[in-house]
Design brief:
Oligomer: single chain
Strand content: 5-15%
Distance between the termini: 43 Å
Strand order of the largest sheet: 1-2
Number of strands: 6
Length: 276
């Protein structure tokens, strides 16, 4: 007979299994799309597959160990779960303290790449192929569309919406370049050249697939957004740690029950001896 603790652990792991299968299914869907998959989807393909397979394997161990009452499998599940909890705790602490610095200093509403930690620069922008994939994702996601609204009360001038950090750095040239705006993504360089001799001013291109995607201001904006997103992700990892901790404690209790049931009773009745 399955103990209530085993049943609860089984339910926890069934839910985890469904989540893992959903992640694997999403990755397979992106693979099937092939060339039709967007660049942003391609960035998610491998993380979804690896994370999904890991969840499926761990949850399968939990289901077999709890509902099948196989103590060896349950012990392996507990070990893996404990390691996951430790890894997630270290990652969460690293994400909190590793990004706990002043969020890049804004210069004319843009962020400087050098204001961010070197490890974050290496992770996001220093690798050419990595930045190429990020840039393709930004273009594919059309982050530079619908940046402004017409305002009839201001003689038809375009007024920028509240831009995100990435949009501010990638979708328009830095203000210190002195470019004149024709529309939200078309800017005219002064006849005398940029006001400031800066590489970003030279990199700006009015083509929709160019704009300022190769500018340091764009990379700084992506770094700032990455930093904010990492801190938000720590909220979810904290919830996952709590979930795994509850599952770990219940699994320990279930394993203890299983071992208690497998031990012979100390108060068994001795067989009666026949008198000669």
């Amino acid at each position: 007979m399955v103990h209530r603790s085993n049943a609860v652990v089984g339910v926890f792991n069934v839910l985890t299994l469904l989540l893992g299968l959903a992640a694997v299914g999403g990755s397979i869907y992106i693979i099937i799309l092939g060339g039709h998959a967007s660049d942003c989807q391609k960035l998610l393909r491998n993380p979804l597959l690896i994370g999904g397979v890991l969840l499926v394997l761990v949850s399968t161990l939990g289901i077999v160990g709890s509902l099948g009452r196989v103590n060896v499998v349950m012990s392996i599940f507990l070990l893996v779960t404990f390691l996951l909890i430790v890894i997630l705790i270290f990652w969460t602490v690293f994400a909190l303290f590793g990004t706990h610095t002043k969020l890049g200093q804004r210069i004319w509403q843009h962020y400087k790449v050098t204001d961010f930690k070197h490890w974050l620069q290496r992770y996001v922008i220093d690798d050419y192929q990595h930045w190429k994939a990020i840039k393709s994702c930004l273009i594919d996601a059309h982050v530079c569309r619908n940046l402004a609204v017409d305002d009839d009360q201001n003689d038809g001038y375009l007024i920028f919406r509240r831009l995100s950090i990435t949009q501010s750095g990638c979708c328009k040239p830095p203000l210190y370049c002195g470019f004149r705006m024709e529309n939200v993504t078309f800017w005219v360089e002064p006849t005398t050249g940029p006001v400031e001799k800066d590489s970003d001013c030279e990199r700006w291109n009015n083509r929709q697939d160019k704009l300022c995607y190769d500018c340091n201001s764009c990379k700084g904006g992506v770094l700032a957004d990455t930093k904010l997103h990492w801190r938000r992700i720590t909220i979810w990892t904290t919830l996952v740690i709590i979930y795994l901790t509850i599952s770990y404690v219940l699994s320990c209790y279930a394993l203890w029950n299983n071992r208690s049931d497998s031990r012979p009773s100390k108060h068994h009745t001795q067989p009666a001896l026949n008198n000669p």
